[in-house]
UniProtKB/TrEMBL annotation:
Domain of life: Eukaryota
GO MF annotation list: heme binding; heme transmembrane transporter activity
Protein name as catalogued: Major facilitator superfamily (MFS) profile domain-containing protein
Main localization category: membrane
Organism: Favella ehrenbergii
Membrane association type: Multi-pass membrane protein
SUPFAM superfamilies linked to this entry: MFS general substrate transporter
InterPro entries listed in its UniProt record: FLVCR1-2_SLC49-like (IPR049680), MFS (IPR011701), MFS_trans_sf (IPR036259)
Amino acid sequence: MLLLIFLFQEKPKTPPSATSGTELTENVMENTKALFKDPNFRKLMMTFGIIFGTVNTYGTIVGILANKMGYSDDNASIFGAVFIIGGIVGSAILGTYVEVTRKYKVAMMIVAIIAIFGPIALLSTLYTGYVWPVCLAAFLLGFDLAILPVGIDFGVEMTYPIAEPVSTGLLMSTAQFFGIIMTVSCTALVAELEKPGCLYSQIALIVMAAIGLFFSIIVKEDLKRLKYEKSLAQSNEQGDQ
């Protein structure tokens, strides 16, 4: 702690990139109001909030679903671990994809589609009574964790020059809001209705994911930070000439 206090700087002496040195440092409330007034960012909030909310929900209820469908606690632990592994792999793949192509909207739509078909695969395999098919479905569902790096980076690009913590904070708050509602609702359904509750909870999550897909389709891919970096690079090239 002492080393952190005395040796670490709050920020570097020079900005790490051209855009990081031009971010707005206005009052947080003013930046927040500006983002809420942006219809495109509101669409991103809905997509990110719903999809990441479903991910948080699965992280909580996958073990409960497995137990209600007759699987042991050990099996439920395996499903949870495979779910996390799928998230790591999905985040690496789609994170690299958007870093190379800058096609954030395509990546968001892919994640939303997986969020729709993942629950179908999970519920279908749970009825088989075998472990390995459920592991495959859990791995597929884990890919939805890729919404975290993709969505946050998309938000930063879209809202530039507003500071990153503001847009990221709003996205995460929206995800927490939806996540709490869906987790409580699905847990209650499963607890009260047993196996039928497993089915109804998955249907509810599929409907929510479909809404998330809708917003991912209509959101505009307005990459303001990337446009600024390109214009700055062109200006520097012209200045050198």
